[in-house]
Amino acid sequence: MEPQTAMVLELADAALQSVEPISKRTAAWQAFARCAVPQLGLGSLARLVALLQQYGPAEDAELAILLWQGEITQPVAALKAVQRLRSTVTLLQSQGITDAARWLQWRDLADAQAVVHGAPHQAPDTIHALLWHLDSGRCDVPWVLMFARRVLGQAPAYGHAMLAIQEMAEAMKLSAKVLARRIAWHERLFQALGDLPELRLAWWRCVKRTLQAQLTNATSAKLQVQGVKEPLSLSLAVHLRQGQPMLTIQLPRAFGAAPAWPNLTMVQLRQEGWGTGLRLRLLLQGEGALPAQLQLDIAKRWKAAQLQQPMFERISATKWEISCCWCDGLWKPSSLDQAEVTTWAIDTALQVMEYVLVLRGLLAWKATAATVLSR
Questions:
Q1: CB contact at 8 A, 33 and 156
Q2: Distance between CA atoms of residues 346 and 199, nearest Å
Q3: If residue 332 lies in a helix (H) or strand (E), which one and from where to where?
Q4: Nearest CA to 269 among 287, 281, 277?
Q5: Whole-angstrom distance, CA of residue 322 vs CA of residue 136
Q6: What is the pLDDT of residues 255-308, one digit of tens each?
Q7: What does pTM read for this prediction?
C-alpha cells in the first residue's frame, strides 16, 4: 500500500475516536479501509479533500453511509465521525500538509502538539482526536498486540509485548513511542488488506498445481518468497506476509531446435508489492533470437487476444524476456471461502496459459517458417 493511502487510513482512524463501543469503531474503520477506499478512490489526501468538497456539510449524513459502509448504526455517531474527519483535514491544510511525506514530518515535530493546542477556532473533539494521534494513537495497545498476535500466531500478554517493544526500541536507538507508531503504521496496511496468509498460500499453491498440469513438459516448479530478511526458517505462510511470492517454472529447450530459433524456457509469475489488488507480473524468458518483426507480431497478437501489452527485454543476442503486469482483482480473503480462493487461483493460472499459448504458437510459426525458407 502506498504511504498516501496509509495517511488517509490514519486520518479515518483518528476521526472514528468519537465512536463507541470500540467494536463498532473497529468495524467502521475496517469497512472504510477495505470498501470505501477502493470504491471512492481515496488513495491520497488530495482525493479525500476532493470527496469532501463534492459532498458539502449539508450532505454529511449521506457521506457517512459511503465512508463507514453502514457499520455505525447510530446516525449521530456516524455524522460526528464525518464532521471530525472534515475538520481534521481542514486543520492539516492550514498547516500546509498536502501529502504523506509532510504529514509524517509534521507529526514528529516537537511543536506539532503546540500547534494543535493553539487552534482555538477548531472544535474541541477535533483537537482531542489529533492530540490523541500525535501522543500515541491506538498503537499503545491494540495495534501492537495485533502485530504480536499476527507474527507469533498467538496472543501474548500485554506486559510481555510492550516490554519487547521497549527492548527493540532501545536496540534500534528509538523511543518506544516512535517504534510503536511505526508498527501501527504497517499493521494498518495489513488490516486494510484483510490478509489471511493461509488462504494466500493456498492460492499460490493452486496456481502452481494448475500450471504444472498444463505445462506437462516442465522440468521444475518452485514457489518462493523474495524480499524476506528473516533469518529464522519460518513457514512459507508466514513469509508471505513479509515479501513477494514468486512461482518459477522451468521448461526444456525444444528438442532439435536450431540455436537461432526462439524458444520459451521459463514462465515466472510474481506478486508486485502489496496493494488493494493482487498486482501480478508475468515474465516469459527464452533463448534464441527474437527479431524485431516477431516482437511486433507478438504485441499485435496479444492485443488482438485482449491480453496486457508486452514489454520486451533483450538480455543478450540469444536470450530474451517478455513481461507484462495486471491487477488480479481485490484480495479480500476474509470474505472468501476455500472454494472461491481455489476458483480464483485456477482462473489466474489459465490467464497465464493464454499468454504462454499465444507466444508458443507464434514461436512455432517462426520456427516452421524458418525451416521452409531454409529448404
A1: no
A2: 14
A3: none
A4: 281
A5: 48
A6: 555 556 788 999 999 987 554 456 789 999 998 888 888 888 888 999 898 888
A7: 0.51
